[in-house]
Each structure stands twice: as C-alpha cells, then as structure tokens.
Specification:
Elements (H helix, E strand, L loop, with lengths): L3 E4 L5 E9 L4 E9 L5 E4 L6 E9 L2 E9 L1
Length: 70
C-alpha cells in the first residue's frame, strides 16, 4: 500500500477497521457501513513506511492481516 487502503466486503455490512503499528500502537481507526460499491478507504499516505497489522470486524467475523506501507 502506498497511499490508500481499500476495504471492500462482498456484501453491505458495518465494518470497524483498526491499523496497528509494529510497536503495538493504534495509528488509525475507521468505522462505518461499507459494501461492494462503497468501500472503506483508509488514507495511509501520512504514515511512515513499514509493517502494520489491520484488524477488521464486520458482522460476526474478525479478520487480522498484515500490510506493508511503502
């Protein structure tokens, strides 16, 4: 990811997204209703390059994944 990270679920659902630095600090948080035609966009342009953990909560599911900001 260089500037904007998009979260686009297959169906419309309320989504809570948290971006966490390698040090464990929460660096961004976004929440709202998103769907296939209205993705959640997270502007990461101001963050320094590095690895981050993205935690997504939507519906009854939780997804945790790593992203690399370059």
């Amino acid at each position: 990811v260089s500037d904007v990270l998009y979260v686009r679920p297959g169906t419309e659902v309320y989504t809570d997204a948290t971006l966490i630095s390698k040090a464990g600090a929460q660096v961004m948080h976004h929440a709202g209703k998103v769907g296939p035609f209205e993705p959640l966009s997270i502007n990461v342009a101001s963050l320094p390059a590095g690895s981050y953990t993205l935690k997504l909560f939507y519906g009854s599911e939780t997804v945790v994944t790593s992203i690399v900001k370059y």
